[in-house]
Amino acid sequence: MSEELMELSPENSSVSGFKEESSEHSPSEKWLKTSKITPFIQLDIQAEFIEQTNSGHLGYGHSHHTPETGEKHQALKSHAITNTEKTYTVTRRKEKLSSVLLPLSAASYYSGVSPEMEIVESCQTIEKLNAYLKAKKDDVNAGVPGKFLRAVMGSDGVDVGTVASIITYSFYLDVTSESDQFCTVPIININRANLASHVELKWLLDSCHIDQSSLIFADEIDLGYYDLFGSLNIVLLKGSKINSKQEKLKHAVVENFHCRKGDTIYPWVKTVITGEECSCCTAIADKFVNYSPEILAGKSFSKLLLAGILLDTANLRDPSCTSKDKYTASLLINGAGRYGCNGFYQLLKYKMHDLSSLQVADILWKDFKKWTGQESGDSRSLQIGMSCVGLSIGQLLSRAENLAQEITSFQLYEKLRALIVVTGYFTDEKNFKREVLICTESTKLLESLLFFFDFNASRLPLKALHFPGLKNEMKAYEIDKVTSRKIVEHLIQEFVGIPKP
């Protein structure tokens, strides 16, 4: 699903590509020759051909040639003016965006196309990307016979910038590879079932027409199997250390892409590419520019990379945002749609905070972390999780018939002995407020946690709240001053015995 409406005019409803032939073919030309454009659905608008006449006039539509003019037409074709065709599909908009604070633009006043409809331009790069993803997943399902599995993955997190980087960089490695000994696949570091909780990511993949059934998620592949037989190579993006859950696979890391200067690199890693740019997507787009800039011309592909850049750089306003980030964003502006970069960024931020379609478990998974430690006087390991949500505890209670049971099920699934839900929201008076809901497996552990928080009351002053339906192992509190959620995070780490960095 794409959020923008494209205006139909002679300039954009009829598209032609002009390219001169030469005896030598660049990677760009070779790549384009293998591309095919097919309609997404039956309802489409075929772009007409633009032909150049002897007088230099641009004519739209298909000309009917007489035998005399036919000779001239053939002569024109011999001058290497090749025609390309783009396909547009018209679909009914699936959602209304009236609640999104979009910036004013000329498109806001365009009345030639109904706002209930949207027009989507075909993207041959996405078609090739989807074909690549499907082929590689088929290889993985077959066990990757006779090849090394080259897994491209993020060091941590599944934010939009990380996922966009993983998908596009694995595609880049594949199209530029001169060897067939690697099966290069992107690995998304969450379970497939948890994708729904990342609304902005799911929306972006949908609107870019990424075939999500061909993506590989963490619960769909056993990387340890390939590591056991020595056929696993890991390309690590946006960091120098592998995710703590996959620590046992660290010796398979062969490349660090877009890590920071000064990061501690595994000593056996030979290929290390440090990132000067704020966004990893900027560095990947630069790779495509040098290899085949036509790949970035597709609207959906440029949209995927642009989304990562805008969110990584806070709409190009982050102090660490570089001139290269800004320049690359301007190259990818086609992906922003009718409202430009500002409007596209607002849509992404809106989706990040949109909880309207999520169940309680999805809300808890949306921004979730957990730590493992040891409780004093207990031989068992202690796993505590923290979920940050943009709702009040009261609103969370209203979303489930039995919130206590939903939270208990979540704790069991994640093997947590305690879960701390940290809320952050604005009241009707526009005052920011935080609350915490502490949920434990036993009253003994609850008392231990509350004693620890009370001891640190200067950092986390709590005021009791009372809600019906909570179990004895659950307590709700209002944080009695404006507090960063990082304070709660640091206190949890201290409680489980994780030393300060």
Note down, in words, how this protein is organized.
Residues 350-480 form the DHHA2 domain. With 501 residues, this protein is an alpha/beta fold. It folds into three domains: 10-121, no CATH class; 124-352, inorganic pyrophosphatase (n-terminal core) (Alpha-Beta Complex), CATH 3.90.1640; 360-495, Diaminopimelate Epimerase, Chain A, domain 1 (Roll). It is built from 16 helices and 17 strands. Strands 8-7-6-9-10-11 form a six-stranded parallel β-sheet. A six-stranded mixed β-sheet has the order 12-13-14-15-17-16, sandwiched between helices. Strands 1-4-5 form a three-stranded antiparallel β-sheet, with no helix packed on it. Helix 5 packs across helix 9 and helix 9 packs across helix 11 (340-352).
**Total helix count?**
16
| CATH fold title of the largest domain | inorganic pyrophosphatase (n-terminal core)
CATH superfamily (homologous) name of the largest domain: inorganic pyrophosphatase (n-terminal core)
- What is the assembly state of the chains in this entry? single chain
Helical residue percent band? 25-40%
* Rg from Cα: 27 Å
Mean pLDDT: 79
CATH class of the largest domain: Alpha Beta
| Large-scale geometry | globular
Number of domain modules: 3
Pfam family, one: DHHA2
Domain DHHA2: 350-480
Protein name: DHHA2 domain-containing protein
GO molecular function, one term: exopolyphosphatase activity
